Amino acid sequence: MEDDLTLVRDHTVYSCVMGSRAFGLATEASDTDRRGVYLAPAPLFWRFEKPPTHVEGPREEEFSWELERFCELALRANPNILECLHSPLVERLTPVGEELLSLRGAFLSRRAHTTFTRYAASQRAKLDADVRLHGAPRWKHAMHLLRLLASCRDLLRTGRLSIDVGDHRADLLAVKRGEVPWPQVQARMIRLTEESDAALSTTPLPPDPDLPRVEAFLIRTRRASAR
Known about the structure:
The chain is of the alpha+beta class. It folds into 2 domains: 2-108 and 209-225, Beta Polymerase, domain 2 (2-Layer Sandwich); 111-200. The chain has 11 helices and 5 strands, in the order H-E-H-E-E-E-H-H-E-H-H-H-H-H-H-H. The protein has helices at 2-11, 20-23, 67-75, 79-84, 95-102, 104-107, 111-134, 139-158, 169-176, 182-200, 211-225, and strands at 12-18, 33-38, 54-56, 62-66, 90-93. Helix 7 (111-134) packs antiparallel against helix 8 (139-158), helix 8 packs antiparallel against helix 9 (169-176) and helix 8 packs parallel to helix 10 (182-200).
């Protein structure tokens, strides 16, 4: 475990704050969720036991991915990973991290429609189950689902991913406090999903991410770490 934590402490190339603080939805009670990317030195891959693809810690609410795993998930349009690349709250950034951030556009593609809406559907099913069992959803989760759906719609419309909710903060926090009736929240979710579906036909996003560009970055970075 200590070796794993050393990778985070000594080899992180990019780290940021995520969650409510990055989304512009923080309150006094909000936790500080940290996410990062570490570059495992190339010689560690020459052993039978490979370096970990991810590490929890060393701080509370901190989670990091090895660079290759992070890129792999980003190429798949994993919502959580793509959002990490667009956090406005960057805590650590090395030259490798700067190059990673310069590739943000290379990871974006129409695949995001599938991954974002599929993730949203799974979260919506959980909220519906809460309503059936307890008479109400987990309002915090409902708020974040609305935020995700709006982010997906805007990404498809503009080709750019923005995670700060901006002027929608007050409306979303009202949902979190349970001040908006569940049928209204449901209707908003349906509308956002339909708007995302409609935006797919005219989106400026390419069909697929720029795999060669990302792979060239990864190979170049690995070679440099082997010296």
